[in-house]
Task: structure prediction
Amino acid sequence: MIRKIFREGFAAGVIGLGALSLGSSLGSAAELRAVELSASDDGAQLTLDLSEGAQHKLFTLEHPDRVVVDLPNTHLADGVRAPGPEGVVTEVRFGAQPDGTLRVVAELKSALPAHSGWAPEEEGHRLILTLGEPAAAAQAPPKTVRAPHAPREGDRDVIIAVDAGHGGEDPGAIGRGGTREKDVTLAIARALAQRIDAEPGMRAVLTRDRDEFLELRERIRRAHAAHADMFISVHADSIRDRSVSGASVYVLSVHGASSEAARWLAERENAADLAAGARRDDQSTLEPVLIDAAQNQIIGVSASAAERVMSALEGVGEVRKAQVQRAGFVVLKSRDIPSMLIETAYISNPAEERRLRSAREQARFADAIAGGLRSYFTQNPPDGTRFKQEHRGSLVSAGGAALAATP
Result:
């Protein structure tokens, strides 16, 4: 098998080969229990959390550039999912080989040297793959994906996909003072991600962290790749009447838009792909949004979460619509991720444009949205999360107190 791998590797253009590293000998199959990815544009660190030490073989391939590690006599624990794209890493995937070897592949934007080593023994059996220079790989905090039934399960983070609207050649709305929607949405999205990451039990994933154009369905795809529990799309639109102000929150519509304004806004956002020149021969973005039964259920969850966020935004400033609005936004059309679109303020309103440019005000929006999300997940914790564990603990405590008070 090793000879075959070497032959295939050289045929594809092997650009480097890490040394064969040995852990403790395996009498039984090892289990890959969790994967952590920390990446920047210059390097990455991939940590494999194993049930026991394992032999491994590390090598790199070209066309496309990949780093590959083979783990003989190892299987993937149930429910472990690959981290989503981050920095120089475009994809992480797993593959079971016929001889019982588990292969882990990290696909890269560009070739990087790869090295491997084991973490200190007190940290367990953690195989660390360093891609590029160690300093570059350590710039971002690790993102962990664990198996639901692994021994450490029960404390996974709730993952929030934060989507900064527009970007790249699509500036979005432009205020009278020249403020571009794509810039303020990215600033607010970054502030929101930082606020979410500061909350115990919550972790944010940005669909874009730079000025780039993303098609609407690519935003959904990135949220799926990150295994998000919630999708938040941040916007700051304009309207012809410059006196209009205030925040509003939208979820996907089941039976048409909740208002003419909501319908108009959804049509405008859905046309963003074509406005930016993407897929000009494909009009599917403008087709009606069709809802199936599973998606209908997700919309109900989305609405409940959106109500919490709406209430939190009322503490920040004016709210244009006190109720959650509904419209056929393509970017919210996920069958298994609760999703909402937040219009933080109207960039067409001069006062709100100034507010949107303020880092202090951006932070206030972020604090409110994160607070609303935490409120929702505290009461509606996803299975396997720290929120769920704490929720069960509070129920047990409440039950014990009730029993103690019983004569």
About this structure: The longest strand covers residues 30-39. Residues 158-380 form a domain with the Aminopeptidase fold (CATH 3.40.630.40).
